[in-house]
Design a protein that fits this description.
By secondary structure, the protein is an all-alpha fold. The chain has one domain. It is about 70% helix and about 0% strand. The protein contains six helices and no strands. Helix 1 runs antiparallel to helix 3 and helix 4 runs antiparallel to helix 5. It is elongated, with a radius of gyration of 17 Å.
Amino acid sequence: MRLGEKAILRGFLRSIKNYYYLTPIFILLYLFSNLNLRIVFPGDFPYLPYGYMIGCFIVGGFVLKSPIALSLFALFESAVNMLMLILSMLMPLWSVGNDIDALSTFRFGIIELIHFCIAATVLLVGFYANPIIRGKI
């Protein structure tokens, strides 16, 4: 691996680590302003996002030390994050046939778009930071 590739890989891994270190900011945003940019669960689970974010903070920030494990965790976590975001938007639409009031819970706006962009960026960085994917084990 060339010197420039090592620097890029270290930068990718540092950005993933910083993303997990910044999780308390996401928790405070959700707690005080109800601005949820990190995870959305379909349905009414008011405390589940806190547990999810605390788990990500602990595992991603402090437990995983290996570059492979950290990038695989980022891939998995952001894929789950995007799946939950998509399901939270689709479930109200799927249930409209049974209950027309389900449309009142449908949300798609700038917050969901920012949420998607954050999750997609972590997914891409986790993919490109992975030494297995890059063939540099």
